[in-house]
Amino acid sequence: MFVKKNATLLTAIGAILMSGMSQAETTLNVASAGSQNMVDYVKTYLAPKFEADHPGVKINVVGTGPGDAGSHKIYEKLSAQKQSGFSSWDIDVAVVHQKVGGEMVQNGLLSQYRNDLKTGSMVTRDSAKNALGTDVDGYVMPMFHSQTAIAYNSDLISNPPKSYDELVKWTEENPKAFGYNGIKNGMSGVSFVTGWIYAYGSDAKTLSSTPYDKSIESDWNQAFSKLKAFNKNVTFTPGNAGTLDMLNRGEIFMGPVWVDMFYSWKEQGKIPPSMKLSLIAPGMPGQPMYYVVPAKAANAELAKEFIELATSPAVQAEGIVKQFNWYPGIDANYVKDQLDTQTWQKLFAEITPEDLSNYGKSFPIAPYFDDIKEGYERQVAN
Question: Whole-model pTM?
Answer without folding.
Answer: 0.80
